[in-house]
Design brief:
Layout lengths: L2 H5 L5 E6 L3 H12 L3 E7 L3 H10 L3 E3 L2 H5 L6 E4 L6 H10 L3 E5 L6 H14 L3 E4 L6 H9 L6 E11 L11 H4 L2 H4 L2 H10 L2 E12 L5 E12 L4 E9 L8 E6 L2 E6 L2 E6 L2 E5 L7 H15 L7 H20 L3 E2 L2
Parallel strand pairs: 1-2, 1-4, 2-3, 4-5, 5-6, 7-10
Antiparallel strand pairs: 7-11, 8-9, 8-15, 9-10, 11-12, 12-13, 13-14
Helix pairs in contact: 2-11, 5-6, 6-12
Length: 332
């Protein structure tokens, strides 16, 4: 069945946007340039910024997301705000008859994410969780070259982001961002997409607190044992204590290894080291937004499902519990 038959849509789609940050800006630019959509309303955290953003994209400024999701003139709500509000906004939007696109994570709580997926099915509305890491050049290069190294048995992935001083913003707030591997769900999700189901997880974490409610740095290292036997180590760090940025991603197989660092990649087999074209990370939000619109209007398949995102969220929540208890957690 095509999406148009399933969803009874009219063109242009009327869109409401929650958020005024970087992701919201890229979404708004794409919506404005696509004749199939009209950005109708924007809700943000501060009246001044919301008004300025709305004027830039010829939309109405709305006081808060609670008012935005109730507007009868909207078909679709796109959620680009702090992680801790994703679940509540998605629930309200679906309940008021809107299609929903939300940046990962769908919720900070797996139980709530499950409820939202069921709600979307019950009201026959699209619920899509953005995972642009799957569309990026690095991930696509890994996928293309994975078979060349034979059966993979070990992966190591690290993202270190120095920030001095650490900003007083929601990404450094423990409840607004969530546990680091939940808030930055893409770190685990790309591994799950490549290697499948996870059997057990463990984790060590450290946070550098400040006198305010924000921390100044965090460091989390998780170990995942996949049902295939592959072991992966994932490190996520950011803040004032780090002096050097790093983004290495390595996968070792029985016939060689794939080594990426930033935008450079290599296939290493014995003495031979072959460069891999990683491609650009630019334009992914625009590409993602167009894919969602194609799905809604033309019925084309999407690149990820909410159930797959939910599984990654359950693994991330297991990592959180492992960090808090010091135990190895089984993923059921």
């Amino acid at each position: 069945m095509s999406a148009s038959a399933r969803f009874s849509l009219s063109i242009p789609l009327k869109v409401g946007l929650v958020g005024t940050g970087y992701a919201a800006k890229l979404r708004a630019e794409t919506l404005q340039s696509d004749p199939r959509t009209q950005l109708v309303a924007v809700a943000g955290n501060t009246p001044e910024r919301t008004e300025s953003f709305a004027q830039t994209y010829q939309a109405a400024a709305v006081l808060g997301w609670q008012q935005l999701v109730q507007r009868p003139d909207l078909d679709l709500v796109i959620i680009c705000t702090i992680n801790s509000e994703h679940g509540a906004i998605a629930h309200a939007a679906l309940s008021s008859g809107k299609h929903v696109v939300v940046e990962y994570p769908l919720s900070l709580h797996p139980w709530q994410a499950e409820e939202l997926i069921s709600l979307a099915a019950n009201v026959n509305k699209l619920l899509h969780v953005e995972h642009i890491e799957l569309l990026g050049g690095l991930h696509q290069a890994l996928r293309r070259n994975l078979a060349a190294i034979g059966a993979p048995f070990y992966a190591r992935y690290s993202t270190i982001n120095p920030q001095k001083p650490a900003p007083h913003k929601w990404t450094y707030h423990p409840t607004q961002f969530g546990f680091p591997f939940v808030g930055a769900l893409s770190r685990l999700h790309r591994l799950i997409d490549l290697f499948g189901k996870v059997a057990t997880v463990s984790c060590e974490s450290r946070f550098w607190e400040s006198e305010s409610e924000y921390y100044t740095a965090c460091l989390c290292t998780a170990k995942l044992r996949f049902t295939s036997g592959l072991i992966a180590e994932v490190t996520y760090g950011k803040g004032e204590v780090f002096s050097q940025a790093a983004r290495p991603f390595e996968v070792y197989g029985e016939n060689g290894c794939l080594m990426f660092n930033g935008d450079e990649g290599y296939l290493v087999q014995g003495e031979e080291k072959t460069p891999i074209d990683v491609g650009s990370r630019r334009g992914l939000f625009a590409k993602e937004t167009k894919m969602v619109l194609d799905h809604l209007i033309e019925g084309t398949a999407l690149y990820v499902t909410p159930d797959v995102s939910l599984y990654a969220l359950k693994v991330a929540d297991g990592v959180r519990r492992a960090s808090e208890t010091g135990k190895i957690i089984e993923i059921l």
